[in-house]
Amino acid sequence: MSKKNMWSLKLSTAALVLIPAGVGINYVGKAFAEFLKLPLWLDSIGTILAGMLSGPIVGAICGAINNIIYGLTISPVSFIYGLTSVAIGLVVGILAYKGWVKNVGRAVLLGIIASVVSTVVSTPINIGFWGGQTGNVWGDAVYASLIAKHFPMWIASFIDEFVVDFPDKISTVVIAYLIFKGLPEKLIILFRGDERIEKL
Fold first, then answer.
1. Helix, strand, or coil (residue 127)
2. What is the DSSP letter of 185?
């Protein structure tokens, strides 16, 4: 992807098609995690893949639409968590552009960065809407334990979120990375709106 395209609002047809596809992948990931009762969300695979393929703008749009749909169909509170999804899409899109999807080691590191970003953005929301909890059984057990030991709410809430986000975002980024690496190079260039492909 050429530098001038990273923040371009002129999206290729392939990039526009990628957005609903990414939202669909998010739904499948979330349903899979819930069905198996995993201590993960897996609801950002499509957002992260979109960021890897088409950059931060498409990643952010995919994340925002995903939460708008969640807000309309599952819980209105999902609207505010759109901030987290947008942040993840932006960060992954930027770092992917910078070459952070070259190997699985970089993908794991990208997952760690995404988990920190998600935790920082989500923690104030959790405190404002849920008294600091995440709604995840594993994370909230940690939260309850820390509160019982008289930790400040914001620290307990931050750790609660991070305990879930850390494995979730690493798993999510690695899954998205494996999908990304499995795609033909010509298709990847097409999603990125490279003029060389547009002219073919």
1. helix
2. H
Short-list 27, 40, 54, CA closest to 171? 40
Domains of the chain: 3-198 (1.10.1760.20)
The continuous run of DSSP H or E covering 140 comes out as: helix 137-148
Q: State pLDDT tens for residues 155-197.
A: 999 999 999 999 999 999 999 999 999 999 888 888 876 543 3
Who's near 197: CB < 8 A, 6+ residues apart?
186, 189, 190
Query: What is the tens place of the pLDDT at every residue in 104-151?
Result: 999 999 999 999 999 999 999 999 999 999 988 889 999 999 999 999
In angstroms, the CA 113 to CA 156 distance is 20
Written as six digits, the tokens of 103 are 């190997």
